[in-house]
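User: Design a sequence. Structure:
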């Protein structure tokens, strides 16, 4: 039997796996900003409502220098430091491999397809 939400979770994990693991040194917390307008609807549903906002300059999920939603963080947060763009590149050299803009756009489109499958034309 087809289960759209289970299929969506599987596809989301596949998108996330496309990103390398950073050798993070924990020096970039100041780069954590509001992500609400830049995540898919499906990603937003997986994160507690209190952690999603677009108003503060610093991410409301960052507390004591640590991400409180790390296992469920959206694609934008996972991709930070791993995209070949001056605004997305880790200034501390924690990434071994950088995605091109095209590769990042492909991942984003996959998330949008998840939303379209689950919620219709969004």
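Assistant: Done.
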């Amino acid at each position: 039997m087809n289960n759209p939400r289970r299929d969506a979770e599987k596809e989301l994990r596949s998108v996330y796996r496309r990103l390398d693991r950073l050798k993070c040194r924990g020096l970039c917390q100041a780069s954590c900003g509001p992500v609400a307008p830049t995540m898919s609807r499906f990603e937003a549903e997986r994160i507690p409502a209190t952690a999603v906002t677009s108003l503060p300059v610093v991410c409301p999920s960052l507390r004591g220098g640590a991400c409180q939603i790390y296992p469920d963080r959206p694609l934008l947060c996972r991709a930070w430091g791993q995209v070949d763009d001056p605004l997305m590149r880790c200034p501390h050299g924690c990434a071994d491999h950088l995605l091109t803009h095209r590769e990042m756009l492909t991942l984003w489109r996959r998330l949008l397809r998840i939303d379209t499958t689950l919620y219709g034309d969004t």
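The chain has a mean pLDDT of 82. The chain is about 35% helix and 5% strand.
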